[in-house]
Design goal:
By secondary structure, this protein is α+β, with helices and mostly antiparallel strands. It is built from two helices and seven strands; from the N terminus they run E-E-E-H-E-E-E-E-H. The chain is elongated.
């Protein structure tokens, strides 16, 4: 997907002072003259934009920009996709899944003793 970041263009609506009455679509945080993320024609803060786009890391729940690993119907920062037991990064090869958790082949064999046939 292509991420579109725009400078906020807001009307001259006033809050009674010199403040700008403009908010992100969902969390109601003010964006004033800063930037916002647009999705389906609506402005969003970075977190809600990535939430709507499905690009939050399943491990840390923070937005992913750049490289992404998609596994187990989730997306991860490469450094967060690790073996659930030894914490070794799993970004360079295959893994085994047990009860919705990823394991390197070595830990999977040690913990579950199930066949390591690929």
């Amino acid at each position: 997907y292509q991420r579109r970041v725009r400078e906020a263009v807001v009307s001259t609506q006033s809050t009674g002072s010199s403040g700008i009455n403009a908010e992100y679509g969902e969390c109601k945080n003010r964006f004033g003259a800063g930037t916002y993320y647009e999705h389906d024609g609506k402005p969003y803060c970075e977190m809600h934009y990535h939430q709507h786009r499905g690009s939050l890391c399943a491990a840390c729940n923070k937005p992913i920009s750049g490289r992404v690993i998609t596994a187990m119907r989730n997306k991860f920062h490469p450094e967060h996709f690790v073996c659930a037991f030894c914490i070794t990064p799993l970004s360079k090869g295959t893994f085994k899944e047990h009860e919705s958790k990823p394991y390197c082949h070595t830990c999977y064999q040690k913990l579950f003793g199930l066949g390591s046939r690929a």
